[in-house]
Amino acid sequence: MSGRLRCYSFHSVKGGVGKSTLSVVTALKLARKPGAQVTLIDMDLTGTSLADVLPLEAPAWSHVEASERLNLLQKPDGFRSLEETRDAMEERDEAARKALEENPEGPESRMARGVPFLNDYLLFATPDWDAQQDVPVASLLWRVQGLAHESLRVIPSSALPSDLERGIPVIFDENHSGFLEGRLEYLLDSLVPDASGDEAVVVVDTPPTIPGLSRSVLSLALRLSRKEKQPLSEDGMMPERLRNAEVQWTAFLVSTMDRQDLRAAARWLSLVNEEEAHHIRFLINRARSGDEQQLKDLLSQALGYEPNPLINNPLWVKEERTWELFRTVGEPIIPEGPLPFLEVE
Ligand SMILES: Nc1ncnc2c1ncn2[C@@H]1O[C@H](COP(=O)(O)OP(=O)(O)OP(=O)(O)O)[C@@H](O)[C@H]1O
Ligand SMILES: [Mg+2]
């Protein structure tokens, strides 16, 4: 038996409800625990990046210039400074744009340069990639500048226009969602601790709207949460460490008190079956006083929902200045006190 994986993912129908904020706070909070090993995965490939809100330092390969190709199959041997990271991101974008202009279909247009993003792993952006040798996870792990502890690593997505352009055909195509889910599954496999008894925490931020990437994450969550873990394809294959690991996953469907959002979220939740309901929590963020009563009225009168414990008993996070960590500069300040949506802290 390998170690344990404790996963949290944040999903929503509408954008801007607080998924990234909740993901970051969860990861930072859990990373404070002695001996913690936390990885924050930014699955929002649709145009925003945690690298733009957190002071993240990218892994580096010495003797490799920012404009040169990265061979992600080789493990990195250090980290770039924050400034170097920012510069390398721009160089990556420039080089990719040039390659796209020259030959949009050519392999050069898909190469990882400068800094590695989750996009590169999901979309095989490195030369010599084959089924026998996957990218080691160390090639993707960025560190947070100024954090006293080394217990948190982040795998950011790219918000560079060139990466978005290259990813669009895959990211927004539901036919690829199984493929992306499979890649994420392999990534999780490499985060499973070796020793039984050890635990790793994985926090996954997803883009708004359920279909697509968010559903890929949710589907993986539910497959891994079954008593008998369910493989992605009919051939029954599942990466070995993950298959042997104990996986606990809580997927949060986040909404605000906005009625469109609530109604849409409640529709999705009403599709959840009893077994799945153990792994999904409804979370209302940016709540104000009086919202609990208002929600009851809305659900029973305006939305006409039958009693459903998943919908009727949400978790609440208040609208508070302390949660506005993306408006501050530098190391994010974690709200004090226990997080109302984490059972274990
Ligand atoms: N509980 C809260 N109280 C006050 N402000 C909040 C709270 N939660 C989130 N915010 C603010 O709401 C805004 C949107 O948050 P965030 O970016 O986390 O949403 P998101 O769901 O990740 O958005 P997107 O769907 O675009 O990825 C941010 O400015 C954030 O600071
Ligand atoms: Mg977000």
From TrEMBL:
<dbReference type="GO" id="GO:0051782">
    <property type="term" value="P:negative regulation of cell division"/>
</dbReference>
<dbReference type="GO" id="GO:0009898">
    <property type="term" value="C:cytoplasmic side of plasma membrane"/>
</dbReference>
<dbReference type="GO" id="GO:0005524">
    <property type="term" value="F:ATP binding"/>
</dbReference>
<dbReference type="Pfam" id="PF10609">
    <property type="entry name" value="ParA"/>
</dbReference>
<keyword id="KW-0067">ATP-binding</keyword>
<protein>
    <submittedName>
        <fullName>P-loop NTPase</fullName>
    </submittedName>
</protein>
<dbReference type="GO" id="GO:0005829">
    <property type="term" value="C:cytosol"/>
</dbReference>
<feature type="region of interest" description="Disordered">
    <location>
        <begin position="86"/>
        <end position="111"/>
    </location>
</feature>
<dbReference type="InterPro" id="IPR033756">
    <property type="entry name" value="YlxH/NBP35"/>
</dbReference>
<keyword id="KW-0547">Nucleotide-binding</keyword>
<dbReference type="GO" id="GO:0016887">
    <property type="term" value="F:ATP hydrolysis activity"/>
</dbReference>
<dbReference type="InterPro" id="IPR027417">
    <property type="entry name" value="P-loop_NTPase"/>
</dbReference>
<dbReference type="InterPro" id="IPR050625">
    <property type="entry name" value="ParA/MinD_ATPase"/>
</dbReference>
